[in-house]
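Entry:
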Amino acid sequence: MKKCILITAVCLCSQLVFSQNTDSVVIKKIVDETMTNGAAYENLRKLCKQAGPRLSGSPQFANAVRLVSAMMKEIGADTVYLQQCMVPHWVRGEKEKGQIILFIGKKYDLKLCALGNSVGTGAKGVTANVIEVNSMEQLDKLGTNGVKGKIVFFNFPMNQTYIKSFRAYGESGVSRNRGPALAGKYGAVGAIVRSLAINLNDYPHTGATGYNDSFPKIPAVAISTNDAEYLSKQLKRKNVSKAYFRTMSKMLPDAPGYNVIAEKRGSQFPEEIITVGGHLDSWDLAEGANDDGSGVMQSMEVLRTLKALGIKPKRTIRAVAFANEENGGRGGQKYLDEAKTKNERHIFALESDEGGFTPRGFSLDMTEAQRNKIMQWKNLFYPYGASDIIAGGSGSDVGHLKELGTALAGFTPDSQRYFDIHHAATDVFENVSRRELLLGAANMAALIWLVSEYGL
């Protein structure tokens, strides 16, 4: 009996080694094709330069939908179609102004921008004393007595000791996401938030803030990390008389938005759907090259590469350019709603929304059995730099599919430079490396092919 078990184990091991050797040959072809003939970089150039900033509800976003639809048809998808959803339509208005007034009479101009979805100050602006807080607990302790009638300065630096910078972003992000609403609860008249940038620079970083309808909605801006350091220093020296800023942003009625979907039907199990995607919308300060034009183009490249190699996936693969990730999440919700209405079977979804930088691996949000199966493929990714495969999150768009029990994953490139450009005027095409972008797409294509071939 023991001999039979041993023989069976040896046979299974031999089969796995043979399968991995065969798979490595296919993956090498996928990587070679992507790195040699990949279209993602030039398509990204076209998106950035012809559509530009693509905030949900804007004419630029509508133009991006047309551009990406045409690109998806060019890569040879079986079908290309749109899913309409109504999206928030926030506009920034006139360029923001702001300054701090020192007791010596000197005025210091701030490099700032309104936070996404923020109400504006109106033409008069807001002028008030400033109080700095370094934690939400500190804000709560100050309460109405310490905050009412003031501008609250949220100075939450991203933790420099975290090598995985998204961890720092998650911790400090509460200042932008919830800070202005809670400051309004305690009677503040405005909020200034330190930009969520890990390095010191002069660029303010925008991003969505969320209001609570039970509290007054106060205007909120982000200032550059250099200005945050300066303001904090002057406050500690008791040199600041008041702060002033003026924003003209406002929320308009919801507008039509669209998920753009390219589909390659599966040859054996077409009812089993694999999704790979990124979000098409971007903030309005720049071209959204890394956030997230790169993810959209990498997802399309998966289909282009398989088509170019004549690989017929066993399962249906969809490349999705999601609408409205930045300030509402309506595109991901629409994709889920359609899946539920059509009773679709979504077995796996991969999102790329951390920039087009050097690939490091994938984070997996799925059952232990599914994770163990993917871990068996880990060695196949070693030659291409994406072997850091761990349990973790996926992405805010594909994350909606968790309700269906879908196995989820996020593509994880190196994050050290991402927060230099994230939501800032520096997120432009020129800050994307062709080689890094394509290598990420190649690793994504390899994982999608493996799941299509073997299932989960």
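The mean pLDDT is 95.
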